[in-house]
Description:
Layout: E1 2-7, H1 11-23, E2 29-32, E3 49-50, H2 61-80, E4 84-85, E5 89-93, H3 99-111, E6 118-120, H4 122-128, E7 136-140, E8 144-146, H5 148-161, E9 165-167, E10 172-177, E11 182-186, E12 189-198, H6 204-210, E13 218-229, E14 240-243, E15 255-258, E16 265-268, E17 272-273, H7 287-295, H8 297-305, H9 307-318, H10 320-330, E18 339-351, E19 362-366, E20 370-375, H11 384-399
Parallel strand pairs: 1-2, 1-12, 2-9, 5-14, 12-20
Antiparallel strand pairs: 3-8, 4-8, 5-7, 6-7, 10-11, 11-12, 13-16, 13-17, 13-18, 14-15, 15-16, 19-20
Helix pairs in contact: 1-5, 1-11, 2-11, 9-10
Amino acid sequence: MYDLVVVGAGIVGLASAREVLSRRPGLKVAVIDKEPRIAAHQTGHNSGVIHSGIYYAPGSLKARLCVTGSRELYAYCDERGIPTERCGKVIVATDPSELGRLRALHRRGLANGVPGLELIGPERLREIEPHCAGVAAIWSPVTGIVDYVQVAHHYALDIRDAGGEIHTGRELVGLRRLSDRIVLETTAGDLESARVITCAGLHADRVAALSGGAREPVIVPFRGDYWQLAPRARHLCRNLIYPVPDPSFPFLGVHATRRIGSGEVWLGPNAVLAFSREGYGRFQVRARDLAESLSHPGFRRLARRYWRTGALELWRDYSRRAFWRSVRRLLPPVELEDMVPGPSGVRAQALDPSGLLVDDFVVEAHDGRVLHVRNAPSPAATSSLAIARLVAERAAKVFGDSFREPG
Length: 407
């Protein structure tokens, strides 16, 4: 029998198992995942940005854990020899009407303790990104890039080096709570554990329900498609270029991101309802997933609230030319022929019954033996070491003495 089983081998699940083992090296810990490899979904389908913490509400978990987590992640990667690049990022106002929102965002970043933030004018912007159009911008020099799959594999090595186990190809299908243990029913046989932590990402709500956890918040999957700059046009973006967030749209909008190692420049993503929780293609449909999203009252309220923006996003998803127009607001020299198809990702977004996106990280205890990470979207990868510390501290409170650090 295990002392702890962590469900989910994405970056948050692996970081959490690693942190628990670093505090209590003698515990018998296993991580399970339904996929044949670790980091198969959100961890392996993101843009690779190390966020600085500008966007998030001051005092929120996201703000605190992102600022701390980015610093810790850089240090961890330096120690392990994982390539990172503090390339910096500009958040660009392309029209004077955006200047008020840009200044408010700058104040928020300062309140969050983001180091090195500057408000810059068009001359300085052209020095940093010569092909970018803007009337003003925020310069964030500590924003960077990394390969999060590589980070996840190093977390997995740390787990194994500490005596932990990782079992892939084990889908959790049931949780039975007995008086002295929990039986995890998986497609590769049952496992028994004293305690369980779930970090199930796109299936966080369903896994929580297996233990009798609350039905809300539900996960609604949003797919984001990227285009790429063709190699001949990559010089048009040196590093990271983002728009000022649009208050009529609950995501960050189309931006340009250079990838570490390859030199690729990704353009996007858009954000549309995914027809499957793991549907990375436009025409991938899973009836159960789609029906759950469409029937949820919170999603219907969200759709009514943002129907105009949602319709534009859907049109941009199917129209290369419409997507190109969004790109040209930031990078006017980009031609339609410069854009080639790129990858896609699916974001696990928690949604409450009122139709509001659950904006902060959510860690929820259930009956003293199970802990659920219910919501961990971006910047969860950046914040993974800090989130893991939060999870381990909650586990110590909920699970008792055997999970507390000695002394």
